[in-house]
Amino acid sequence: MSTSKVETVDIVIIGAGFSGMYAIHRLRHYNVVCLEAGDGVGGTWYWNRYPGARVDIESVEYSYGFDETLQQEWSWPEYFSAQPDLERYANHVADRFNLREHIRFSNPVDSMTFDERENRWHVYTANGDQLTCRYVIAATGSLTAPNLPPWPGREKFAGEIYHTARWPAEGVNFSGKRVGFIGTGSTGIQAMPIIAEEADALYVFQRTPAFCMPSGNRPLDEAHEQEWKANYPERRKQMLNTYGASLVNYADRSGHDYTPQERADILEQAWNSKSAFQLLFAFRDVLTDAEVNEMVCEFVRGKIRTIVKDPATAELLCPTTYPIGGKRLCIGSGYYEMYNRENVTLVDARTAPIAAFTESGLRTSSVHYDLDVIVTATGFDAVTGAMDRIKIEGCDSRKLVDKWVDGPTTYLGAMTSGFPNLFMIHGPSTPAAQAQMITTGEWQVNWTADIIDAMGRDGFTCIDVTPEAETEWAQEVEMVSMQSLHRFADSWYNGKNIEGKKGGLMIYVGGFPRFAQLCESAVADGYQGFVRK
Ligand code: NAP
Q1: pLDDT of amino acid 13
Q2: Can you give the residue range of the structural domain that contains 285?
Q3: Is residue 343 exposed (0-12), middle (13-18) or buried (19+ Cβ within 10 Å)?
Q4: Is residue 433 in contact with ligand 1, taking CB distance under 6 Å?
Q5: Whose CA is closest to atom 29 on ligand 1?
Q6: Which residues pair with 181 in a beta bridge?
Q7: Distance 136 CA to ligand 1 centre (A)
Q8: What is the CA radius of gyration of the chain?
Q9: Positions of the chain with pLDDT lower than 70, given as ranges
Q10: Is there an atom of ligand 1 within 6 Å of 392 CB?
Q11: Is the CB of 142 under 6 A from ligand 1?
C-alpha cells in the first residue's frame, strides 16, 4: 500500500505528444498536470526513432497553428521532416511555452478510478504518484502500444531484436550483419532502404505487400516556405475544410470520366507530384468506387513491375488483396528500388509464415534463416491499445476493457458512456490518421477545452454521454464507412492486424469537416447526447 500523498489538481492530461502538449497550453488557466511515460516530449516522434522515420505530410502543414509567432519563426529543413527535426520542434515548443513545468516524465499512468460521489478521477502512476482531478484528458495517441506477435522462441535468439517503435536512442549498428526484417507497412518501407545500405544481407519477411508512393522529399525551398508563412491563418482554415485536413489537390471528377490515356497521364502526374497521397485524390472516387480504385492499383502495380528488375520479386511485391488507400498508403523513398540490391531478399511470409525464432535466427514453415539482428516493424495495437493498458474504472466500478471487449464505443470519439469527465483526443471513431493529426488534434483540444470551460461557467461538475448517443454515433460511423472502401482492407484501422481483436472500423472515414460539424452542432444544440450535472 503506497503511503504517498494524494495531490489535488484540476486536470490530468495523459501523454506529452503533440495533442497533450497543446492541451497543457490551452488549459493552463487550470491546475494541470501531464503524465508522460517517456522521458521526453513528442509522443510518436519521441518513440519512433528508427532509421528513416519521417512524416508523410508536408511539414508546413504538419505543425502547430495555435501561435502565429511560432509558425513564423520556425523553419523546417525538408518538405517531409525526419524524426530528429520533429522531436527538435516538440522540444522547442515545450521550452518556448514553458510546458515542462506541468509534465512529469517517465511516469506512466497505471490506473484510474472515478469517484461518483465527488465527481473526480483518482489517478495512480507506476511511480507511485496519486492525484485526484476533476477531468482527465487522454491524449494517448492512436499508435502507441507496439504490437509484438507472440512468436515462440524469442528468448532463445542469441542476436539482437528490436521493435521500430522502441528504437534505442543511440542507434543500431547493422554493418556486417545479416538482418531479418518483419513488417512492410509505413514503418518498414521507410526503415529498410536505409538498413539495406549498411547491412551485409537483408531478408524482408513480407506477409502483405504495401502500396508505396514516392514522397519526393527534398530540402524545403524558401519561396514555398515564405508563401506558406504569408498565408498561414488562411491555410490552416482551408486545411480544416478538406477531407484529410491537408491541402493536396482533391479532384472533383470521377476516374470514369476519362479515357485510359487521360487516366494514365493524370496518375503519372500524381505519382510524380511530390505531394504525398495525391494518388488517392487524383479522381474524386478513388476511395469510394471499387473500379476506379482498381485502376489506381493497377497503375501502381505497373510501376512496381517497371522498377523492380526481377519479375518474380516484382510480382510478390504487387498488392492484390485490398484496395489502395483501404489501409494507409505508404510514402517512401527508394523502397521498391531497394529490391534491385544484391544483398536484399524478399521472403514470402504469407505462403510460408514465420513459425518461430531460434537461437541462430528465424524459421518459417519451410526454411531457416541465419540472422544476427531481427527488426520487427509489426505495427501497433492501435486506437485502443494505449487506453487498454491503463486500468480504467468508471461508474459502478465498470472497467473500460470490459466495456470495449467487443470493440470501442464512443460518442463523437470524445467520450464513452459511464466514464464521466474523461475526454479522449484522437479517440476511437475520430478521423485519427485519416486526417492530419497535429491540426485536427489542436481542433479537438479546443473543442474539449471549450466544454470544460463551460462546465465551470454553467455550474456543473460532471459530464457524461448517453448510451443512446453512442449508438447513434456508431450508426454514423458505420454509415460513412459503407460509402468508402476502407472496410475491405485488414489493417490497424479495423483492428484486424491483431489476432483476436474485435470491433469494426475504429476510425471515422466521413472526412474531417463532417466530423467537426457534428461535434460542434452537438454542443451548440444544447449538448445533444451529453448529460451534465
Ligand atoms: P502496420 O502498417 O500495421 O504494418 C505492420 C506490418 O507488420 C505489416 O506489414 C504486417 O503485415 C506485418 N506483420 C504484423 N504481424 C505480422 C506477423 N505475425 N507476421 C508477418 N508480418 C506481420 O504498422 P506500421 O508500419 O508501424 O505503420 C502503422 C501506422 O503508423 C501507419 O499506418 C501510419 O499511420 C503510421 N506511420 C506513419 C509514418 C509516416 O508518417 N511516414 C511512418 C510510419 C508509420 P500484414 O499487413 O499482413 O498484417
Answers
A1: 98
A2: 154-376
A3: middle
A4: yes
A5: 186
A6: 204, 375
A7: 30
A8: 23
A9: 1-4
A10: no
A11: no
CA-based angle 9:419:391, to the nearest 5?
Answer: 80
Is residue 59 in contact with ligand 1, taking CB distance under 6 Å?
no
Strands (E) in 307-459, as ranges, are: 330-332, 344-348, 354-358, 361-364, 368-370, 373-376, 391-393, 422-424
Asked if residue 354 and residue 229 are part of one domain, the reply reads yes
388 with 428, same domain: the answer is: yes
Say whether both 366 and 418 belong to one domain: no
Q: Are 281 and 250 in contact (CB under 8 A)?
A: yes
Residues 292 and 202 in one domain: yes
The rounded distance, in Å, linking the Cα atoms of 12 and 136 is 5
Counting atoms of ligand 1 from 1, which one is nearest the CA of 54? 41
CA distance 528 to 24: 27
Tell me how far the alpha carbon of residue 211 is from its chain's centroid. 18
Alpha-carbon distance 247 to 508, whole Å?
A: 19
The CATH number assigned to the domain holding 438 equals 3.50.50.60
Residues 343 and 393 in one domain: no
Whether residues 425 and 291 share a domain: the answer is no
Q: How far apart are CA 327 and CA 322, in angstroms?
A: 8
pLDDT, residue 154, reads: 94
The residue written with cell numbers 470493440 in the block is 407
d(CA 45, CA 88): 9
pLDDT at 178: 98
Domain end point (choices 347, 376, 405) = 376
- Would you state the pLDDT for residue 315? 98
Residue 108 within a domain: yes
CA of 378 to the centre of ligand 1 (A): 5
1 is a domain residue: no
- Nearest by Cα to 145 from 54, 43, 41, 35: 43
Q: Are 49 and 173 in contact (CB under 8 A)?
A: no
CB atoms within 10 A of CB 70: 16
Confirm whether 448 is domain-assigned: yes
**Separation CA 375–CA 389 (nearest Å):** 24
Which of 341, 376, 411 finishes a domain? 376
Does the CB atom of residue 180 touch ligand 1 within 6 A? no
As a whole number of Å, the end-to-end CA separation of the chain is: 34
pLDDT tens column, 370-416: 999 999 999 999 999 999 999 999 999 999 999 999 999 999 999 99
Ligand 1 midpoint to CA 182 (Å): 9
Pairing of strands 212-214, 201-206: unpaired
The number of distinct structural domains making up the chain is 2
- For residues 176 and 316, membership in a common domain is answered with yes
Confirm whether 23 is domain-assigned: yes
Question: Is residue 165 domain-shared with residue 209, that is, in the same domain?
Answer: yes
| DSSP designation for 430 | S
The answer to whether 34 touches 98, Cβ cutoff 8 Å, is: no
Distances (CA, A) of 73 to 385, 442, 448: 36, 19, 28
3-state helix, strand, coil in the chain (%, to 5): 35, 20, 45
Phi and psi at 374, nearest 5°, equal -120, 125
Q: Where are the alpha helices (DSSP H) in 339-466?
A: 385-388, 400-403, 437-458
